Amino acid sequence: MIGRRDFITLLGGAAAAWPIAVRAQQAVMPVIGFMSGRSPEDSAHLLAAFRQGLNEMGFAEGQNVVIEFRWARGQYDHLPALATELVERPVAVLAALGGEASSIAAKRATSTIPIVFGMGADPVELGLVDSFNRPGGNATGYTILTTQLEPKRIGLLRELVPTIPLMGALLGSNVPVAARQLREIEEATRKIGQRLFVARAGNDTELDAAFRSLIEQRVGAMLVAATAYFDTTRERIIALAAGSKIPAIYHLREYAVAGGLISYGPRITDAYHQAGVYVGRILRGAKPADLPVLQASRFELVINMKTANALGLAVPNSMQLLADEVIE
Hints:
This protein is an alpha/beta fold. It has helices at about 5-25, 45-55, 80-90, 100-110, 150-160, 180-190, 205-215, 230, 235-245, 255, 270-285, 305-310, 315-320, and strands at about 30-35, 65-70, 95, 115-120, 140-145, 165-170, 195-200, 220-225, 250, 260-265, 295, 300-305, 325. It has a 7-stranded mixed β-sheet with strand order 7-6-8-9-10-12-13, sandwiched between helices. A 6-stranded parallel β-sheet has the order 2-1-3-4-5-11, with helices on both faces.
């Protein structure tokens, strides 16, 4: 029979052991490594989509899974070190999002830890997977294929401003897919007889210089190519375009919502949601090699009429009717 003093002692010992038990429970939580070429300030809606995908698989951050975040903030040369940090952590799954450079850095950092990527390019061309249906190896994910839509955007921009003598293109200066983007942009403009001037930027200093050159060349409109650095600084780009009175087309609706003239591309939140789902499936035992790479299937045309009016542009009725969203 336990006496009162013995009971109190036993109770005190159990209470003292609770923090240890809690720490032990937390220690066994799987850790997700989340690395991105973007910045956290412009990715809140994307993180919400990623967490939603995780939740659908039965995982909630802080309850039964831990997420370690690493952000390159558009500085792609930081990504290899960030990937190495997470691999050495080590993590159970590596979510490599926010551009192709993030996925490439993750793949180079580990051949054993499962990788779930989200990108705008073709992962087969980049050597990340063997094929879409049978990825092989330790990587799979989702591609929005936005980098392959630059010719479509050229056509839309030409329809909006059909008589400009010179069109500009702003490309990333340090992205793996820039060479392909340039080839496709040059081919698209050549087919329609449009003269082209190309500027490049990979940081804020280069971005200011790029806009100075676009202004000096007197481009009548410009394409802002798809790259994570531009996404991290989209408000600056939109402001520079507005200040320069240059009509511009972008690859994500976030640009048009923030004041950009027009955008055409996929819903990037779809990629982050699917990444969360795939990470959850892998935590439950699935292998990346058995999960097919998924592709974007819906694309949006968004027009900001307030910006068009400020630029003195008359948007054709036919284009407005085709738009998925017209911002008044």
